[in-house]
Amino acid sequence: ADYQLDGHPDYMRKEIAEQPEAMRRALMGRLDERFSTARLGGLRLEPRDLRSIRRVKFIGCGSAYYAGQIGANLVEELARIPADAEPASEFRYRNPVVDPDTLYVAVSQSGETADTLAAVQELARKGGRVIGAVNAVGSAIARECGSGVFLHAGPEVSVASTKAVTNMSTCFAMLALLLGRVRDLSVADGRRIVAGLVALPSRIEEVIAQDEHIADAARRFSAARHMFFVGRVRGWPVAREGAQKLKEISYVHAEAYQAGELKHGPIALIDGDMPSVVIVPDDELLAKNIGTIEQIKARGGPVIAVTNADLPAGLADIELRVPRTEPELDPILFGIPLQLLAYHLATVLGRDIDKPRNLAKSVTVE
Ligand code: G6P
């Protein structure tokens, strides 16, 4: 009741705007600038325990699963520990092999999602080491896990999750940093990631300041019935979450593909009525992603490039600019313009932003 709109048209809008302060809360007291690492006391894991982890697996549902995929990439990149993400609904029903050397991370905004809770209970029965990455303190998943990292996003009302998913990947960057710094990650790289994280909230403010430009892009493509979201490696879970947001609140059919897979089927669907949102970070895969845009353009497909690179003039029909951060942290920042794109498309189409049809904020039954 004391969490109100404060002049915002809806909760999604308010929660998008709150992301810089929500992220500052998640980072507060958790970055160790002296030793270039993270301090996550809630994990209850000593350096010895951290070093014994041979694999990391993130489990969650919906946006929490996609955030887990960003987390898995971060853990592999910064700690060089094999990591992946899996939907909790699949994990619980396939009689998973529970490995004592794996750290399982249960990811949930509400802490009440039935599939995620059941996965945690199954892990507990089989002796798996499971920690929570949960927003709601005192929730069922937080209690069942007993240890973990709270997201500190504050209350989230909009069904489409924004500040909670941003804090999920932010917390996973800190987890990956910590796992990396008790292994091979250098002081210099640790320092680079710490500085990148400290600067991230103000980078988000810079994205939000481009709201009008993103709204223009949404108006320009408001007639599209279908859209592709395309990314590779770091950009792939970003594309999946972007497509998810668009589907949830605008009901426009959105499909995410790995850039390299486009040519193996989906490219047959590209024409002037099928816009593609392409994630183009300025990293070692830039040339590959430019090639992907060229392939789409050659088939007449309109392209919205989400980028922090200097793309050849006229390559994309529209550019949504993202400020620079450390390349490993790009996926956290690249999610923000996609939230705004989905938001504005849904607004143009007159949708009920906070209460999309057929969806619930948290799915506590099967
Ligand atoms: C529901 C919501 C999604 C959310 C998912 C997981 O399906 O509509 O937006 O990502 O549950 O919720 P959780 O609370 O576990 O993060």
UniProtKB/TrEMBL annotation:
Enzyme class at the top of the EC tree: transferase
Subcellular location: Cytoplasm
EC number of the protein: 2.6.1.16
Taxonomic superkingdom: Bacteria
Predominant subcellular localization, coarse grouping: cytoplasm
Domain annotation SIS: ranges: 45-191, 217-356
GO molecular function, one term: glutamine-fructose-6-phosphate transaminase (isomerizing) activity
N-terminal signal peptide: none
Reaction catalyzed: D-fructose 6-phosphate + L-glutamine = D-glucosamine 6-phosphate + L-glutamate
Record: active site: K361
Record-annotated membrane-spanning stretches: none
Keyword terms of this UniProt record: Aminotransferase, Cytoplasm, Glutamine amidotransferase, Repeat, Transferase
Purpose of the protein: Catalyzes the first step in hexosamine metabolism, converting fructose-6P into glucosamine-6P using glutamine as a nitrogen source.
Quaternary structure and partners: Homodimer.
Descriptive protein name: Glutamine--fructose-6-phosphate aminotransferase [isomerizing]
